[in-house]
């Protein structure tokens, strides 16, 4: 296809693997002529060919970086979608050599936010603008409308706002799933926490499945029906929808269902681990997300778990699975409520992490607005996010989602079912680390007095760390050891 009459395209995209190729086609489909480039040039030809097949979309391929950069109108905007880390630095070096003051590079990868901040500073010294933009929604999202989380240079954002507003997922009652997130690496950070929340959601759903299958003895057909039913109510979401689909898919290489043949070892790429590390750095409790990460670590120990299952089987533990008959309909309803209540706690943790980082970095993140742009396009999209947005609209300074009056009531309404599910799982020897962590988070957060008084006493006993008192101000130290010698029993 010949270049537009101006001989220049509106935007460029470098990195044509799954995400880049699909986002380029999406941008072109929305009416913005786009230049594309990839280190391995066969992917350039592949993308141009796909653009032809998918409706003669205005995608223009280039095999060398100079002609790629020079094909874009000024100020030039180039989105990079290459593997995070060194490939991003290498791509920036390749492209920036041909760019001019005022041009802008956008990294759409899952990058560590500090790398974006380092690069933004380095680019500013060359007079170039820089954005770190979280892109969520996988292949489908990139092609038909992702959730976009751009952070960094506001001027750069303004240069491409018109494109992002059209390319992002569109949610009828709340608009395009994009907003300017804030300065520096805030876009990458928000995407990282989104992924951490995604880990939590997937873990909670997997536990719901485990309880229903292992304790409730639901068949795949019954599981599919239960999840499909859940997807009509407050749990309506992309992840519940695809979970229902998964239970219906037969194995094309043998008998039975595919899900039963999939190896129980979870992969990961790092954003969940970063989320938990950041929560620890900022002293924000994120136990549900941490439990989901730990569960992925443990799932990776397949050989050890297989050996352990034999050890405990031979010692008489084995499957403690309850032999009592289970009322399937009641269990499905209890698990649904437990899942929803657990999910509220998980999102509360993610939102608190975002707020803590926003305060540390001065990003001024708008939590309600983040919930809004996650309502479409991304993996955690869910009707539930609308409730979160409304909670922050009611009170932008909400200390915790749990104390929003609507969420508080929802938790109260579900706590009996939630406790029943966890007790049943524990008594059946089925682990529910995410749901249990969520319940422990709730039970800890809601109590006025915790056993932390004893921990402070111990710390003062062995380390003279001092303690405060409930009945008078000041810092105190007691010679616990000396007194204890006289009172030992
Ligand atoms: P990958 O993360 O698999 O990266 C492949 C791309 O990086 C190819 O274009 C490859 O070029 C390029 N690349 C590499 Br590898 N090393 C390079 C180097 N030294 N110099 C230049 N280019 C280099 O692609 P992806 O799965 O499309 O993801 C892109 C980004 O988006 C990642 O940061 C990813 O974490 C993020 N993301 C992915 C998803 C998803 O569902 N896949 C979702 C959301 C975000 P080549 O063809 O020459 O090898």
UniProtKB/TrEMBL annotation:
UniProt keyword Oxidoreductase present: yes
SMART domains: 6PGD
Positions that bind NADP(+): 15-20, 38-40, 82-84, 110
UniProt GO BP: D-gluconate metabolic process; pentose-phosphate shunt; response to abscisic acid; response to cold; response to salt stress; response to water deprivation
Pathways per UniProt: Carbohydrate degradation; pentose phosphate pathway; D-ribulose 5-phosphate from D-glucose 6-phosphate (oxidative stage): step 3/3
This enzyme's EC code(s): 1.1.1.44
Gene3D superfamilies cross-referenced by the UniProt entry: 6-Phosphogluconate Dehydrogenase, domain 3 (1.20.5.320), N-(1-d-carboxylethyl)-l-norvaline Dehydrogenase, domain 2 (1.10.1040.10), NAD(P)-binding Rossmann-like Domain (3.40.50.720)
Subunit structure: Homodimer.
Name the UniProt record assigns to this protein: 6-phosphogluconate dehydrogenase, decarboxylating
């Amino acid at each position: 296809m010949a270049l537009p009459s101006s001989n220049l395209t509106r935007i460029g995209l470098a990195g044509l693997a799954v995400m880049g190729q699909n986002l380029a086609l999406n941008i072109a489909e929305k009416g913005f002529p786009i230049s594309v480039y990839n280190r391995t040039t066969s992917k350039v030809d592949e993308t141009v060919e796909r653009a032809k097949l998918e409706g003669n979309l205005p995608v223009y391929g280039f095999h060398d970086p100079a002609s790629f950069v020079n094909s874009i109108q000024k100020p030039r905007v180039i989105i990079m979608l290459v593997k995070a880390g060194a490939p991003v630095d290498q791509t920036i070096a390749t492209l920036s050599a041909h760019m001019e003051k005022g041009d802008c590079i956008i990294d759409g990868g899952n990058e560590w936010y500090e790398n974006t901040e380092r690069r933004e500073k380095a680019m500013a010294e060359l007079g170039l603008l820089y954005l770190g933009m979280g892109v969520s929604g996988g292949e489908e999202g990139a092609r038909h409308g992702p959730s976009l989380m751009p952070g960094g240079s506001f001027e750069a954002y303004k240069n491409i706002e018109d494109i992002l507003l059209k390319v992002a997922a569109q949610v009828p009652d709340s608009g395009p799933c994009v907003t300017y997130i804030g300065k520096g690496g805030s876009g990458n950070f928000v995407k990282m926490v989104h992924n951490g929340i995604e880990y939590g959601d997937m873990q909670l759903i997997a536990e719901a499945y485990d309880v229903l299958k292992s304790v409730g003895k639901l068949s795949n057909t019954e599981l599919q029906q239960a999840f499909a039913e859940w997807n009509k109510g407050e749990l309506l979401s992309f992840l519940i929808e695809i979970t229902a689909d998964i239970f219906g898919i037969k194995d094309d290489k043998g008998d039975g269902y595919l899900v039963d043949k999939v190896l129980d070892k979870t992969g990961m790429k790092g954003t969940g681990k970063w989320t938990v590390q950041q929560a620890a750095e900022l002293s924000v409790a994120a136990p549900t997300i941490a439990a989901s990460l730990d569960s992925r670590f443990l799932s990776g120990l397949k050989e050890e778990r297989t050996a352990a299952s034999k050890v405990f089987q031979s010692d008489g533990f084995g499957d403690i699975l309850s032999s009592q008959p289970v009322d399937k309909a009641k269990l499905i309803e209890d698990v649904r409520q437990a899942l929803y209540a657990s999910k509220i706690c998980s999102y509360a943790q993610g939102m608190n992490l975002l707020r803590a980082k926003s305060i540390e970095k001065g990003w001024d993140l708008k939590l309600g607005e983040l919930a809004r742009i996650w309502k479409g396009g991304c993996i955690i999209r869910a009707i539930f996010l609308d409730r979160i947005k409304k909670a922050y609209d009611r009170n932008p300074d909400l200390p915790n989602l749990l104390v929003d009056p609507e969420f508080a009531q929802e938790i109260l309404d579900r706590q009996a079912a939630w406790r029943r599910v966890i007790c049943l799982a524990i008594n059946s020897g089925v682990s529910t680390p995410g749901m249990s962590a969520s319940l422990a988070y709730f039970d800890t957060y809601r109590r006025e007095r915790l056993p932390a008084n004893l921990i402070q006493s111990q710390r003062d006993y062995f380390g003279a760390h001092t303690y405060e008192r409930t009945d008078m101000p000041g810092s105190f130290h007691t010679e616990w050891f000396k007194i204890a010698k006289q009172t030992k029993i």
